[in-house]
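A student in our group prepared the protein record below, which I am reviewing. What it holds is a sequence and that sequence's fold in token form. My question to you is simply how this chain folds and whether the tokens agree. Do not assume that whoever made the record got everything right. I have pasted the whole thing underneath without changing anything:
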Amino acid sequence: MEMTQYLDIFIEESKEHLQAINQQVLLLEKSPEELSIVNEIFRSAHTLKGMSATMGYEDLASLTHCMENVLDAIRNKKITVTTQVLDVLFTSLDHLEAMVVEISEGGSGKRDVSKTVSELEALEKGEVSVPQQEGKPAELSQSFDQYEKQIILQSKEQGFHAYELSISLRKDCILKAARVYMVFEVVEQIGEIIKAVPSVDMLEAEQFESDFKLSILTKENGEELKQRILKVSEVDEVVVSNINTEMLNDSVHTESEHPSEKIKTAETKKEDTSASSNAGSASGKTIRVNIERLDQLMNLFEELVIDRGRLEEISKMLKSTELNETVERMSRVSGDLQNIILTMRMVPVEQVFNRFPRMVRGLAKDLGKNVNLEIVGAETELDRTVIDEIGDPLVHLLRNSIDHGIEKPSVRNASGKNETGTIYLRAYHSGNHVFIEIEDDGAGINRQKVLEKALENGIITKEMSENLSDKQCFELLFASGFSTAEVISDISGRGVGLDVVKNKIESLGGSISVDSTAGFGTIFSIQLPLTLSIMSVMLVEVQKEKYAIPLSSIIETAIIKKEEILSAHNQKVMDFRGRVVPLVFMKEIFEVPSAMEASEYVPVVVVRKGDKMAALVVDSFIGQQEIVLKSLGQYLSSVFAISGATILGDGQVALILDCNALIK
């Protein structure tokens, strides 16, 4: 069977299952007694094992199988969830993720995991065990759902006994599934089986060691039941325990209606749930689409946007009513098409955020700190191109918060704080932008320490340091090579500081700011555009050249008189609503040859970057338009204050301005 055609699907689904396991193991760390979480992990691991074996990746399948055995032991209360168990599971996940990455890069997926396998096998053998006392009910009864509890309670009223059977097969038993079947046959002759652990499917597939448990209802006594089962060959031991119905009563409200009515209600709810889930799956059908196809579709649509602009120009020139109507309709349809295509490319930031809880856990442990990561707004959507690029900056900011922000437990305790620090990772929409915030409740930024380091590195002078506001001081963190780490480590302090983060975010058309309160914490705020490929701009003209200014950077446009231009510190400025704003003459910046005489009126476009503003002096306004952003290519990537180009409706090329660079 040719498997290469299924490779892409295998890789994508493997990544999804590994991510799901990662999240569930983190939840298990917080709630180690919650068996439903273990069941979720087991399901994902079992599916991954089957897929890997089918595709021929034996190392992947073998390691997952060892993980399954440990999870099964946890599920059957043979071992308890400890830090040691979680660490081994996380190490196993690291290996599995590395194998899948290697496979996605064309490798064989082979890896030396002998040490981790030995650790898993050691755990499986029960080094951390839960002793069971004979004659006492096992913990299995706590996992009954409401429906099963009601059946047991009602049957008790009708004279039935409720037992839990712990059955052990001989260690050398070969046909385990057959022996289980024979036990089921014996039990069903004198009673009814309510629950099996592991499940019946797993017992049939021999996915258990030698022990399994049954919960049954019967009118026979426990000793009779035990003797009947022991007659099945290769059954080594049977422990019969009474199910504690008082414990079941505590969790079932029976005062208002009879148990039989409850059973009907439970059955109805199950049917309703099943129906609603089926309806949901029918209405929300999805297919996997290769991202390259989406990119091709986007490129074709970008060409369509350019041709649409060209048609609009021709329509204005010819003044044909029919052509105008056709172009208007085409504009509406293509606008709707644009929204659909952009929506198709939008993915939730959850895809990036999901990898952070595990990273935060590991870093906090290495640094001896207690850190809780709270994620808010993971469903917020961003363009895929932005999602692909934003991961590394966020990793750096989170590492910075854990290392520099959150204090050691003893320090937090001494200052009256909770020993566990909290980092909030938020995402939300606002207009045509997505905001991502990283906030911690740590020590905040030490202003004096930042100033001393900036002076030491020659970033500012002594005179400048005396007049800086707190916000301006915090902005120094983004200076090239700035780091306040006292010890160079793998976490931070390598001289590659927040300037890398800032440059990456600005290359995505975004911005980053920081605010802090000493003793209470720090917040980094990132502003990003929803999409990078199609944007709304203001077209302006400088002499005979056309430029596009992104609307997201524009505050407003104005026409001022020449006499309103003032001078301050050898810089031309203007008064904008009581604020002095520097003028940037586009003609001089881009060395545009002068072919027209200057008018007494000067058109300006007021733009901003954070709190800073500038007024771009142009010759005329053309108007607002949606344009397609095209890269200048690697040879022109270093051109000052130009972020790209676009083709206009009349076929001319307009350069897109980088307002951040101009203001800087």
